[in-house]
Amino acid sequence: MELLPKSKAIFIFTGPVGSNRKSIAEMVGSTLSLTHIVAYTTRKPRSYETDGQDYHFVDLETFLEAERNNEFIEEHKLKDIHYGIKTEEILSAFETHDFIYLLLNREGSDLLKRIYGKHVIRVFIHSDKEKVRERLISRGDTEEVVENYMIQYDSEIAYKDQCEYQFENIDLVDTTYNVTNILDDWLQRQLIVLDY
Q1: Are 40 and 66 spatial neighbours (Cβ–Cβ below 8 Å)?
Q2: Strand, coil or helix: what is 169?
Q3: Which has the closest alpha carbon to 182: 125, 123, 111, 118?
Q4: Left if phi > 0, otherwise alpha if psi is -120 to 50, otherwise beta: which for 18?
Q5: Nearest-CA neighbor of 82 among 37, 42, 38, 39?
Q6: Cβ proximity of 11 and 121 under 8 Å
Q7: What is the CA radius of gyration of the chain?
């Protein structure tokens, strides 16, 4: 397990794609001044994605070179597409910020939990399966992409009970408000403990 100072925390927003976890994470992160660590991927950006904000989009050779140099703390491959989080970006963020957040699937969440232990707080965001399907279609994903996410839905939802916090996203504003309040309360408790 990597040792971090007691004051540091990593919030991981996880759950099925299409549950609005990204929107919730961004709004909560902005409100609570959490620093976002962006993953790297070898896939092409979709029409609604921005390089450096949704992912760092890189070519395969660039990714594999970073992998050979052991730059990733977490990396996985899904249907010939590589994803990874760079160790240095986490450590660099912690030089100036106590709290960071990431968007990860269950494998990435588990890996960081094993590495950083109690410093990792997993926030599971989920929605009804049909609502997820509707959101994926409305944002412009292809039928193939939607079906791939639907196949993963059940295994992703099964991860809910292993996470520190779980929220069903029925209404985006209400869910964001609830997540913000719970995490703010958690942060305040941590700051009180550190004052002693």
Answers
A1: yes
A2: coil
A3: 123
A4: left
A5: 42
A6: yes
A7: 17
Residue 34 CA to residue 10 CA, distance in Å, equals 9
Q: What is the pLDDT of residues 2-40, one digit of tens each?
A: 667 677 999 999 999 999 999 999 999 999 999 999 999
Both tokens assigned to 20: 């609005």
Residue 19 to residue 63: CA distance in whole angstroms: 28
pLDDT tens digits for range 69-105: 999 998 888 888 999 999 999 999 999 999 999 999 8
Q: Can you tell me which residue has the tokens 């985006």?
A: 172
Alpha-carbon distance 24 to 15, whole Å? Answer: 12
Cα separation, 74 vs 67, whole angstroms: 10
Q: How far apart are CA 32 and CA 21, in angstroms?
A: 16
pLDDT, tens digit, 9 for 90 and up, residues 103-126: 998 988 999 999 999 999 999 999
8 A C-beta contact, residue 84 and residue 63: yes
Q: What are the structure tokens assigned to 166, written together?
A: 């779980």
